[in-house]
Each structure stands twice: as structure tokens, then as C-alpha cells.
Amino acid sequence: MSVQNFIPQVWSAKLNESLKKSLVYGNVVNSDYEGDAKVGNTVKINSIGAITIGDYDKTAGTGDPQQLTGEQTTLLIDQQKFFNFQVDDVDATQSNVNLLQGAMTEAGYGLAERADAYIASLYTEVAAENTIGDDTTPIVPTKEDAYDHLVDLGVKLSEANVPKSDRFVVVPEFFYGLLQKDNRFVKDPQVLATGYIGNVNGMQVYTSNNVANTGGTNYKVMAGHRSAIAFAGQIDSVEAYRPEKAFSDAMKGLQVYGAKVIKPSALAVLTVNKA
């Protein structure tokens, strides 16, 4: 529908922005490879194997140095998302708000939201031993035990030698509601724009409507360490232009990105069903 179709006699000084989800997953991943994101690129990520620790003997010495071993993981930049919109000259002259700027803000959020949901979908790559519940037998949390289930996720991470620092867990809104009814939950007095809501068992707890679910009922609560998922992305191109068949200003842009689980054992997933 053209902007012209809802022009009132007096234009408001502010745009009525759309309701937005909290974008969380993009803030809890490893973005060290951000500068390497170009469509079609493959980012090679190297990891070093364990260093052997031996018993020292002053006669034998340390022996020959250990040959380092490692693995290489490929992060493919294979996701491409675009926007392309126009603002009619007639609409722009009758408005005392910057429609183009407002539309660019909406487009930027839309791109980020798609990337956030994409990262959330990577729960499928978690190590099997780090899962609690599944689609067949999901956990149905209550206000009495929702906190305990998050503690159990933290234990899974600890048993996999995941560092205590930089841990996170992302829960759906109904789960957050259950946590609020438990006095053990140390929550922030204000839910921040990042979705951060408090801490449980050393994990920073976030809430998001982008928590993946299967069948619309089984939510995949992902916990982990920031280093578990690698993400690289960039706005590849933004272009302003005048469409040939209209009197309007137009903007189009392209974002490219990729994400990959590089440490499956540093993630844990709890499958929950809303009662």
C-alpha cells in the first residue's frame, strides 16, 4: 500500500515504528571473523590440539619437542538477504518526517532479525550428550523447577570443560515468566535492549522470541559459551537510486553472512514445551 493512501491532514512528527523482537543470538557468538565476510567466501578457522604435559627428569631432559596438531573448520558465507524500497516524491513533500531514514532503520532491524533467527537454528549441531529432553519427550517446566532446568544445562557445560566465563542461555518468554516467580532467580530490574534478564549458575540469561521451536510447541533453549558459534557478516552494498518508472527515491541493500558451530561440546540444549 502506498504511503499516500494513509496521509492525514496533519502529519505526526514521529514515525510509528513496528514492534520489534529483542535481538540476542548475534550478541552471544564469536564475531572475530567479521571482517572476512564476503559472499562466496570460505573462512578457514584453525584450532590447536592439546599440549602434552610430561614428568621432567633432569637426566633425560624434555626430549624432542612435540609436533603441534590441529584441525581446520570452514565457515561458509552463504546467506544473502536484501531490501529494496522507495518513497514517492509526493509522499515525501507532504510529510514532515524523514520517511527514508525511518525506512532504513526498519530495514536494518529486519536484516539483523533474520540473522538472529538463523543463529538460533544452529541448535541442531549440539553434541548429543549435551541435550536434555527432545521432541518426543520434552521437558514441561513449572515455576517450581524452571530454574533447576537451567542449572542442569550449566552442569552439562561444566562437565564438558566449558569455561565458566562468557556463558549464556536464551529462553523463550513463557520460560522467563516462570523464572520471575522463583525467588532464586537474580534478575535485572530492567530488561535491557539486548534481552539480558539476569544470571543462573554463572550463565547470563537472555530472553528472545527467536528461540527456535519444532512444530510450534517444542522450544530449543540453547546454552553455551561465546566461542561455540562463529559468525561473520557484513552489509555488502547499499545503493540509493531513482527508479526509472516512478518519481521517487529508492534504497536497496545486500547483507551477506554465515554462522557455524565450531565447538559443539560448548553448547547444551534443553527442549521445553509450554504447558
Write the layout of secondary structure elements.
Elements: E1 42-48, E2 70-76, E3 79-88, H1 89-94, H2 99-120, E4 131-132, H3 146-159, E5 167-171, H4 173-180, E6 186-187, E7 196-200, E8 203-207, E9 213-214, E10 218-225, E11 229-241, E12 248-261, E13 267-273
Parallel strand pairs: 4-13, 5-8
Antiparallel strand pairs: 1-2, 3-12, 5-10, 6-7, 7-8, 9-10, 10-13, 11-12
Keywords:
alpha+beta, flat, capsid protein of prophage fold, 3-stranded antiparallel beta sheet, 8-stranded mixed beta sheet, 275 residues, Major capsid protein gp5 fold, 32% strand
What is this entry, summarized?
The chain is an alpha+beta fold and about 280 residues long.
Structural write-up:
With 275 residues, the protein is of the alpha+beta class. It folds into 2 domains: 3-120 and 231-260, Major capsid protein gp5 fold; 129-229 and 262-273, capsid protein of prophage fold, CATH 3.30.1930.10. Helices cover 18% and strands 32% of the residues. It is built from 4 helices and 13 strands. It has helices spanning 89-94, 99-120, 146-159, 173-180; strands spanning 42-48, 70-76, 79-88, 131-132, 167-171, 186-187, 196-200, 203-207, 213-214, 218-225, 229-241, 248-261, 267-273. Strands 4, 5, 6, 7, 8, 9, 10 and 13 form an 8-stranded mixed sheet that branches. It has a 3-stranded antiparallel sheet with strand order 3-12-11. Strands 1-2 form a two-stranded antiparallel ribbon. It is flat.
